[in-house]
Write a structure and sequence with these properties.
heterodimer, A: alpha/beta, 9-stranded parallel beta sheet, 7% strand, B: Rossmann fold, 5-stranded parallel beta sheet
């Protein structure tokens, strides 16, 4: 049944035609400020949206109610009334102790979930004393080499209650193994722990560039974690399929949507084919992660479209039967790349707009960037403002009162459809290329993003697009923010600690456990049990990753532009 | 004799993977008529210095957004000087606090470009400061 009655459609067409005539008359005297009006991603936006623009929709198939297929209006039947989204601030700096201190401060101030930022050596699977790690220790996040470091990180964190998200990719198995081992030591069974490992390697090759082994073995390790979670850690999200970094690398909203969902398809296919698992036995624990950029309506529509598309993919492509398999549960982070080093206090405003878009798009979890994050790791004061931004949206603004408050609006539904259609076209192109691994090997998503980011920068340089304080409304009177700096001495201390750890351990036990891991890598057996054994036998993060590098080989950045 | 094009090596030292800026710059340099070599993320200072010498470049552009620029940028300059590449100019960009500008200049980095720098301004700097005086 069509969305509007024939009578409404007829009258609407007539009224729109009359209005268009008046617009023409008005434009003669008052021309528009610019010829083209588009979203930040370059999608054309009309002057007005009317029933004509959503004429094709059917209420049952395309919109529906929250908690039912196609989940356009949200996964949860009651929206935010039983529980707000999780306030989850991405955080990590210096040593494990420094980060633990920041976490406790955030929990005191009302944060409801933890999220871990690791430093680059940890992210890349190198111990701090590796020559390639020189100069990076603790700079972009917390340094973790050993189980001992991890215990310090988790000090006094209630692992049976707090959920912990960890932004870790190539070494995800090793870091998750540490989390499991610490829980075990504290007497918390694996069935009780909850959290997320990002563990999404395809977007690393596409965008974030934190890679270790080539795509195929990387995907295999991910399938191991998905299987292990389904069997032993049922409250864990073994992957967070991420569009965030794709967008930060300069993609459009449509590319973010399409590449993320196509990555998701790749992972689901691999688990089904490699592990022979039924889709409904693991799909409910897949989670997602999106960017909330500055174009308010485009972002709301992107998130709504993402939910609807994933439910269609699960139902139609993978024949999922469990409704929870069709839920796209996602975390959102406001856009780091939308912030400006110039007039940094304006970033508070940008973040508030983006966070509101995430909430109106129905996010389950949210990180709000701090005003100084474009310059350095965030100060306590800046983080507090960012967290308060979420609390103001939740408890003062009324945005959480009703579910999907913008649902049904002509512009919102029209743009949601348009983003979805454009994203399906990309997904088709990647299907035709043989899948995402093949597309990555051809450089396809990388080059699409490179082109979009170059176009965007040229539009900023030519003032076709405006960034306040950067190419318009500049000031010579910049208000400085205090900068957080990570002391270079942290590196020396971490190296000392690591070398002491290696000296004290039973080296044979560590070596034996690494041999078992090597065997599992070769035979195709699930690596997770061996990884947990290895960290408990005091193998270091770098040593575990050396096994992977050795067995699977290393991926070199093709340096495309 | 036609004048040789300016040859530029763009590189990301260290473990940082934030390559949006340097790849955008690579496109801009290419469109400005320079010859651009970009070696991708995760290069060691040694790899960068070796490539610069082997490829006989006029300029090396380094990008780092992880905070490790003080060590990594200085190391590249030091290695170039040690191996006969002292005439190769080195510039840097990324998330670099202003008070590090002098540290980097003293270490031999000729210019530092931070967020807000336009592509044109960087291209112009190259035109004004880099000569292809070397071997034909």
């Amino acid at each position: 049944m069509p969305y509007f009655s024939n009578e409404t459609r007829k009258r609407s067409k007539m009224m729109t035609a009359e209005w268009e005539q008046r617009v023409q008359d008005f434009l003669d005297e008052h021309p528009d400020q610019k010829p083209l009006w588009t979203t930040i991603s370059g999608v054309d936006v009309k002057r007005l949206y009317t029933p004509d623009d959503i004429d094709e929709l059917t209420y049952e198939n395309d919109i529906g109610v929250p908690g039912s297929f196609p989940y356009l209006r949200g996964n949860h039947t009651t929206g935010y009334r039983s529980k707000y989204w999780t306030f989850r601030m991405f955080s990590g700096m210096g040593s494990a102790e420094d980060t633990n201190k920041r976490w406790h401060m955030l929990l005191r101030e009302g944060q409801t979930g933890l999220s871990t930022a690791f430093d680059f050596p940890t992210l890349m699977g190198y111990d701090t004393d590796h020559p390639k790690a020189r100069g990076e220790c603790g700079k972009c996040g917390v340094a973790i080499d050993t189980l001992e470091d991890f215990m310090a990180l988790m000090k006094d964190i209630p692992m049976d209650r707090a959920t912990t998200s960890m932004t870790i990719n190539p070494p995800a198995t090793a870091i998750w193994a540490m989390y499991c081992a610490v829980a075990e030591k504290r007497g918390v069974p694996l069935s009780r722990i909850g959290g997320t490992i990002q563990n999404d390697m395809l977007k690393e090759f596409i965008a974030q560039k934190t890679f270790m082994c080539p795509p195929a073995p990387s995907v295999r390790l991910i399938s191991d974690t998905i299987e292990f979670a389904a069997q032993h850690v049922p409250r864990w999200n073994p992957i967070s399929i991420s569009g965030y970094h794709i967008r930060e690398a300069g993609s459009t909203a449509v590319q973010e949507l399409a590449f993320t969902l196509r990555d998701g398809i790749e992972y689901v296919q691999d688990v089904i084919e490699r592990k022979g698992m039924d889709v409904d036995s693991f799909a409910p624990r897949l989670s997602f992660f999106f960017n909330a950029h500055i174009d308010f309506f485009e972002e709301i529509c992107k998130l709504r479209a993402a939910r609807r598309m994933w439910s269609r993919i699960m139902k139609e492509r993978f024949k999922a039967k469990n409704p929870r398999s069709c839920w796209m549960r996602f975390h959102t982070q406001t856009a780091g790349c939308s912030l400006t080093a110039q007039q940094p206090y304006n970033n508070v405003v940008r973040t508030a707009i983006e966070a509101l878009a995430a909430v109106l798009g129905g996010t389950q979890s949210l990180h709000t960037n701090s005003l100084d994050e474009v310059l350095c790791l965030p100060s306590e004061h800046a983080v507090e403002i960012a967290l308060r931004t979420q609390q103001i949206i939740a408890e003062e603004s009324g945005a959480a009162n009703t579910i999907d408050p913008l649902g049904g609006a002509y512009f919102i539904e029209s743009l949601t459809n348009e983003l979805e259609e454009k994203a399906w076209q990309y997904i088709q192109t990647i299907d035709d290329a043989g899948g995402m691994i093949q597309a990555i090997e051809k450089g396809y998503p990388q080059m699409e993003i490179a082109k979009a980011s170059y176009d965007f920068q040229r539009q900023i340089d030519s003032q076709e697009k405006v960034m306040v304080g950067v190419n318009k409304y500049k000031t010579s009177n910049e208000l400085a923010v205090p900068l957080v700096e990570i002391d270079d001495r942290i590196e020396e201390e971490q190296i000392k600690r690591l070398q002491e750890f290696r000296r004290k351990r039973n080296s044979r036990g560590a070596a034996r456990s690494l041999e078992s891991l090597r065997e599992a890598c070769k035979t195709g057996e699930n690596v997770m049990p061996c990884c947990i054994e290895a960290v408990k036998s005091h193998a270091t993060l770098g040593e575990i990753c050396d096994v992977y590098r050795d067995v699977f080989g290393e991926y070199a950045d093709p340096g495309l532009f | 004799m036609t004048e040789r094009k300016i040859r530029i090596l763009l590189a990301k030292p260290g473990l940082d993977g934030h390559d949006r800026g340097i790849r955008v710059l690579a496109c801009a340099f290419r469109d400005a008529g320079f010859e651009v070599i970009y070696t991708g993320c995760h290069q060691t200072p040694e790899q960068i210095a070796n490539t610069a010498l082997q490829e006989d470049v006029d300029l090396v552009g380094l990008s780092c957004l992880s905070g490790a620029h003080r060590y990594l940028f200085a190391k590249v300059v030091e290695l170039l000087r040690e191996s006969g590449g002292e005439d190769i100019k080195v510039i840097g960009g990324g998330i670099i606090p202003e008070h590090d500008f002098t540290v980097l200049r003293d270490a031999g980095i000729q210019a530092v470009f931070t967020p807000g720098s336009t592509l044109d301004s960087i291209v112009q700097w190259v035109r004004d400061n880099v000569k292809t005086s070397k071997r034909q």
